[in-house]
Amino acid sequence: MADHEKTLSVIIPSYNEGKTICHILTRVLSVLLPFEIKKEIVVVDDGSADETGMLVESFIREHPEVPIKYVVHDINRGKGMAIRTGIKHITGEYVIIQDADLEYDPHDYSLLLPYLHSGEYSVVYGSRFLNRQNRHSYPAFYWGGRLVSFIASLLYGQVLTDEPTCYKMFRSSLLKSIPLDCTGFEFCPEITAKVLKKGYKIKEVAISYTPRSMEDGKKIKWTDGLEAIWVLLKYRIR
Ligand SMILES: Nc1nc2c(ncn2[C@@H]2O[C@H](COP(=O)(O)OP(=O)(O)O)[C@@H](O)[C@H]2O)c(=O)[nH]1
Ligand SMILES: [Mg+2]
């Protein structure tokens, strides 16, 4: 397949993100990808009770030139379920998970893509911890992220600096081939465990990060960190 026929699918799981959804869609649209790769956006509205749905629908009407799919869960099912729904709707060769907030910068897609495009890797993670200029959110999230990454490295034998990063980019055929059980934030440890168990090596690339606060809408909790450790152990033992 010629480069200009290749597409990066961007899955955006969104739950009550009315404050930021249009900003992130604008940012994703504004990014020019290397190798003439095109973009496809799949927004999964995870049963939002705010104006997220209405805003996405009017954004799509205002931007008919870009392929944006909008899929709705009638009730809130969790981030993992939103990603699983998104995976069913992607058609690109490559796929990345993009949160609906502004913590990660879509310009960084260009840093990850070359490793997939060269054929050397099938999985690339953007690491917030490899970029020393980044600020971090609450100390509990910083240390929790480091601990989860350390445990993943110990259990699966590959050094990872940022396992819970949102920026996980895959060859779509690989992601589609992996059956997932997750419903919530366990998407991250489950997919990491499963690709490493299959013998794939994960390439990490330094990315930028602008943390948001709980008041700004951050929803992950420290108990999600504990669950991540449990999920990493569970798939190691199985
Ligand atoms: N917390 C939560 N987030 C969801 C859900 N469904 C989709 N999401 C999205 O998943 C992302 C999680 O964002 P955030 O709370 O900032 O967590 P973090 O970025 O992983 O630390 C956001 O884009 C949410 O809108 C859900 O049921 N719960
Ligand atoms: Mg986030």
TrEMBL record:
Which Pfam families does the record match to this protein? Glycos_transf_2 (PF00535)
Q: Which GO terms describe its molecular function?
A: transferase activity
Q: Does the keyword Lipid metabolism apply?
A: no
Q: Which InterPro entries match?
A: Glyco_trans_2-like (IPR001173), Glycosyltransferase_2 (IPR050256), Nucleotide-diphossugar_trans (IPR029044)
Q: Which residues form the Glycosyltransferase 2-like domain?
A: 9-177
CDD domains xref list: DPM_DPG-synthase_like
Q: Which domain of life is it from?
A: Bacteria
Give a yes or no for keyword Transferase in this entry. Answer: yes
Keywords, in A-Z order: Transferase
Question: What is this protein's name?
Answer: Glycosyl transferase family 2
Q: Which organism is it from?
A: Coprobacter fastidiosus NSB1 = JCM 33896
